[in-house]
Each structure stands twice: as C-alpha cells, then as structure tokens.
Amino acid sequence: MRRTLVPLGLAAWVFASVAGAQLSQTFQEFPQGPAGFLMIASEKKAYAELKSDAEAKAWIDLFWARRDPDLNTVQNEFKLDFDMRVQAADKQFSFGKTPGSLSDRGKVLILMGKPLHVQLVSAGAEQAGQRPDFIERGNSQIWFYCKPGKECTPPLKQEELVPFVFTETRPGSADYVLDRGDRRNVQAVKLLAAQPEKLLLHPKLTEVPHVGLLPGTKAATVEQQAIFETQPRPWPQGAAVVTSSGVQSETIHPAWVYVELPDSTPPATEAIGRVRKAQGGEEIGSFVTPVTPLTVSGGRAYEFSLPVDAGEWNVDLALSGASGPVAITTVSAKNEPAPSEGPYISPIIWGSDVRQEPQSHLGAAFHLGGMDVVPHLGNVYQHGDNITYGAYIVRPSLDAQGKPQVELRMALYAGGKKNDEQPFQAMDGVKLVGDVWVFGQILPLEGFRRGTDFEVEVSLRDAKTGLTRSQRIPFTVAKDGGNTNAPSATGQLQGPSASTMGQGGMAGSTSTNTPPDGRILRIRMVKQRGVWTIPVKVNGLQEIDFIVDTGAAETTVTADVVSAMIRFKTISDADFLAGGKFVLADGRTVSSPRFTIRTLEIAGVVLKGVAASVSNAMADPLLGQNVLGQFKSVRQTSDGFLELELR
After folding, report:
1. What is the pLDDT of residues 352-365, one digit of tens each?
2. Vertex 386 angle, CA 381 and 391, to 5°
3. With b meaning 16 or more CB within 10 Å and e meaning fewer, what string describes 502-518?
4. Cis link prior to 232 (omega < 30° from 0)?
5. Which among 48, 13, 43 is positioned nearest to 28, based on CA atoms?
6. Rg of the chain (C-alpha set)
7. What is the pTM of this model?
8. Degrees, nearest 5: CA angle 16-20-25
C-alpha cells in the first residue's frame, strides 16, 4: 500500500483550534503561524475564545512573557531567539509556497534549536527496513540532538544522540518531511511533543511584569519624566556624548551611551532615562537608577547599555545630584540589526583608557572581551598613550580546527596622505560565549611625530565571506608633555602578532610620562581591609590595587592575576625567571614562582623589567622596595595621598 507522508506542521494546522471570527486576520492567523508550534493545548483553547484584537494583543504579550527566561529585564531573550530562528528557517527551508518556518525542519529548529550535527543522505541510500511499506523517496537530512540528561560533549557519541530524519517526499521536492512512520523518528517525535511544555517557564504568570528598561530598575513615572520638560535644560560646557551599537549575545545588540561631564560639574547620583522611536516619538521604555560615575581625565563619566531593537532612537537622559539636575540631554542613537545567520562584525570601538571593572560583563557599555574601553573624546593623545581598539564578531567563519578565519588590515594616513599600510593578516580572537568572539589590538603612540594629524584605518574581515568592517581613528600626539626624548619618526604600524587582544585585555607597552609638577607624583590611597592601596597597571592593561609595603624586598602579584595575564597573552614563558615550578590558582604549572613584569605603571610613570614573585591567590598584591626604591622618597600624607618623588 502506498503511504502518504503528512508533514508535522500541516498536522498541527489541521488539528489546531481556530480563533474566533471577531479577530482581525493578523490575530486570527497567530496560532497558525510559527508561534503555534509553541502553544500547549490549553493555550490553543483559550486563544479560540478571545473576542477582540485588544484581548488578543494582551494575550500574546503574556504568551511571550511566560517563556521569558529573565522577567527582570525589558528584553525577552526567548522572543528574540525565536524571531531569529523564524528568519533563518524562512531563508533556508522554504519550498513551493510553504514558508520555511512552517516546514518540519522549521518547526524542529524553532522548538529544538540548532542541531549538534547534520548528516546528508543521498536518494536511494536509505535502508528499506527503516519504514513500513517502503518506497523510494528523495534525499534525506538527519539532524542530531542531545538526549535528555546527556552532556553530549565532543567527540559526540551515537548513544547520546537523538536523530531527526527528514526526507523529501519525492526526489527534488525540497520539502524534507519528518516522517512519523519512520522507525528512527520514534524518539524524535516524543521529544518534539514534550518541547512546548518544557519551554513554558512561567505557566502561572497572569500579567506582564512592568520593569525598567535597564536590568533591575523600575520604569520612570510620569512625574519623574517631567524632568525632561525642564527649561532651560542644564548642560555643562565641555560635556560630551558618544553612542555605539554593542553586543550582549548572538541575538541581543544593545545601544551603548557614554556621557562625560567636566570635573566642575557636581557628581550625579541618579539617572532617569527614556527611549523613544526617532520616527513618531513612541516611547518604548524608561528607567530610574542610581549611578556611580567613572573617574576620567578631567571629569566624570556615566555609561548606559540600552536593550533596544534595531532602528533609530531618541534617548532622553537626566543626571541629578544632591541639589537637583546637573545635566539633561536628548541623544540620537542608531542600533544595527542583528542578522539571523552568517557573520556579523560590530562597530569598532577605541580609546586610550582601558580598565577592568569588577561589575562589568558582556553587554555592558563599551565592554570589550573582559576589559572596559573608555571612549576618547577628541583627537589629541599624550605621547605615552596607547590606542586600544577592537570589535565583536558573531558567528565568524571557522576553519577545520575551529579557529576563526578573521583578518586585520591597517593603513596609516598623515596629513591626509597614506604613509604606511599592512595587507590583511590573520589574527587571533577569543571565544566568549556561544558564537560570540572578540578581536582587538593596541597601537602604541610613542613613535609618532608630535603635532601631526594622523588617521589609522582599521579593517576587520571575515576571510571566507569577505564581510568587512572598517573604521578610521584620528589622532594627534600632543606637542607638550610626555617624554621629551621621544623619536621624531612618523610612526610605524604593528601587525596582529605584535599586540593582539586576549581574553580580557590587550598586549602591548607604554612609555614613561613626566608628572605635571615635574618631580612628585600624588596618588590617592584607598583603605581596604585595614591596609592602604594604590591602583597600579601591570603590563599596560590591568589596573590592580597594590598594598604599599616599604618593608618588603620584592613586589608580589597573586597567582590568579598571573593566570589572567597568561590567558590574556600579556606574559609568556619567556617572562618567567629560572628556578623551580609553581602551581597557579587554576591548576596550571609555570616554570618559576618569579617572573618579570614588562611594564608597571604608577600614575603615568612606567617602570620596565620589574622582578616579581607569585603569591597565593588569597594574598594581596604588594609593591616592594624593588619598585619603591626607584623613587627618591616615598611619603604618605595626612590627607590620604601617597607622594612619590622622582630621582
């Protein structure tokens, strides 16, 4: 007997409840679209009883909220991922007049996600025993997913996998039906049937939570938003704003906003924000949040990572202190769309101030692979500065060994004319989470002629697809200040192997800066757990609080910091001194408990080739006499400063 294959998607249409005729066509078709695959039986019944579009809209909002993995954020990560899967299915699996998202492969992708492995089987290669009443079909695809309760780590084991077998109903039909009569699909059909219930995370939720636009905040009230009507709006002279599209995950690309206020402006303790569509002005979210400023050169900065969709937005921001509002502005922000498949290269961000903030994370404003890049306002830099630049790449093309096929090209312009160029060269990146990678580098400025207007054009390219993102970074090295013995060359570019970003930082070097008064450094000390500390940059990257210990002979760095520097590629085996072996906090063994710090920076003064010991991770880093002894005098003042007099 000749059997007819019935697609699972079509079966769902046949047996699904149909919404009442009172609804407009858009809402009537909701359960028949891709979202219908997620609906459990009680939801289908409830939707069929709705009597107005208003009821349907409210019901659908709650439908998505019940599947939101984090109800404390305004963005629904599940819905974003669902939309991208629908886009990918429509692009890859459509056949005839059937959208790919309504095909069997589309249904499985939506409910199960991306398969661990796909096997292609040519027509005629199937075994007759797999189906009753076997007749020859077309090509097949077998998708493999992990069995419930299994980890399925590479190399994959057959006994840990569930096959989903899709077959063309006839050669060349491209419909690829998940045949419920195929014996290999018995487990697949059961797993697929249980998935809608599994994805329903909050079945008892009765209303959509109203939260602020920023995680952990509340939405601003009408009374609070009235601050935006203040006239005239306070906006200090010298204040500035920088915006960029950011990356939080494969599907979430927030808009980043950086606001810098001059030092003369009182510090803000609270921010009120509101985001409106640039076209039409519709409000899509607001927030009220306490803020702590970043201390930057010449002022204070405030950063915001706004979870908004792709498009153009007007962001209203009000920063207030103890005596009222100190700055109110409206910022235009443009957020790029996140493609559903293929590589995506984020905008390239850059700055000269790179920090490691304890509370920072992927998605935080101007966060770049474990480090925070403070945007540089204006084009003027000091001779000892480094320009740190980098970008995220989502789903980069990979080679057979799983390494990203990403290349970097750099070109240098002086006075508008090309001065130097390097062709595209392969560069290493670091995988952060999922298919999100980070790439970056630093450009030391110590070799560039002062007073000349330069531009470095940075281009990142996915070698396989040719997708390229370029950015011109203008800079001028200040004529005054810095090392007066600096060379007068026009500067030279370094290739990717010279200063490449690792996980959490950039490798590179800095040079010595003369302090403003010429002889004495004054550094604000902070008391932590009963001891006084000062911030110190190790190898030009990581700012760490060190204890000032005039009784210790040698500087010490904790094992966890050394592990991080190895991971960030800011030190190598060659930096460890001869001697025995030492086990780091993460279990790795290095050749010696002593190593050489390439550059140790204190308030702009850089010491090179500093010997240090590796201490237990529970201890605190400390500055010993091999560092403090290089200064003529070391004195702690009564007002909480450490004064270091240069020799």
Report:
1. 888 876 667 888 99
2. 110
3. bbbbbbbbbbbbbbeee
4. yes
5. 48
6. 29
7. 0.59
8. 90
